[in-house]
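INFO  loader      accepted 1 record
INFO  loader      residues=337
INFO  predictor   begin
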Amino acid sequence: MKTHRNIPFFVPHAGCPHCCVFCSQVKITGHGAEKDLESELRELRALLDSCGEAKDKESRIAFFGGSFTAIERNRMESLLSTAAEYIRKGVASGIRISTRPDCIDGEILAVLKKYGVTEIELGIQSTDERVLALCERGHTVRDSDNACRLIKEHGFTLGGQMMIGLPGATAESELQTARDIVAWGADEARVYPLVVFEGTKLCEMTLAGEYVPLSEEEAVKRAADCCRVFINAGIALLRIGLHASENLAEAPFGANHPAIGEKVQGRIYADIISSLAGESAGSVLEVKIRREDISMLTGFGREAIGYILKTTRADGIKVLPARYRRFYPSVKKYLPG
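INFO  predictor   done
INFO  writer      dumping tokens
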């Protein structure tokens, strides 16, 4: 997982021309309807005044929570202009925004470049036309392809967001979405197992039996498989799963475990270790892994350890901290005793 310092400012549901069946921005972000511009700018300045100078080159002022490039133009430029002031003061080194694929064109990208935007995250979610239609996304796969191409041509860092367990999605269509995001030149990715919030059309569909959410185990496995596509391609994983919050815990359906990201990372490690070990009946596995990631294997009732022992048929496993910083673990086998 890539680490960086974001200074997040939420622009909830702002500008979005569609309401997807799964969308509940208030539940996800904890922020309500948009405020008047002057109040919003005062809040932004207060936030940035409290930050001090950036301590690393990866710091970004991040506008999250809506389709930023679709909001009213004066509001968008006012927010960007204010953020740009603080970049000049050394509070951050750039601006990150998130938006929809159908809200990107050359003219908008020129405006973003003018104010110092460096990174653009696209809510691609799926590259299956049927899934997009069932989710009422309001854009096509071609829109996503074109937006990614334009973003890269204009020199921005490109982030691709995708979701696991959308209506109509399959494990294979999700893997294809991950492959497409790689092929379209993404530098970063976020993977979100779907959570069903009350008050959404998806919740109504679930209660009516029109949609069946993935179990937590299914969501973890499918997310892990997609994450490995990004890892193998050298694409930075910024986040797996929504941030934990009381609202997340209250979601009635879906993969709403507060540490779903760590569970997914544990499965990624478990799959890699199982593949490296192969058939290991009668042997003990010695696994070396980054110290900060050991809990991915040993936490949550040792789920990942149990998975490795089951798939390899090993008699035991010993987890040791590695001295290197790379993601991939090393595995040795030896006879017990």
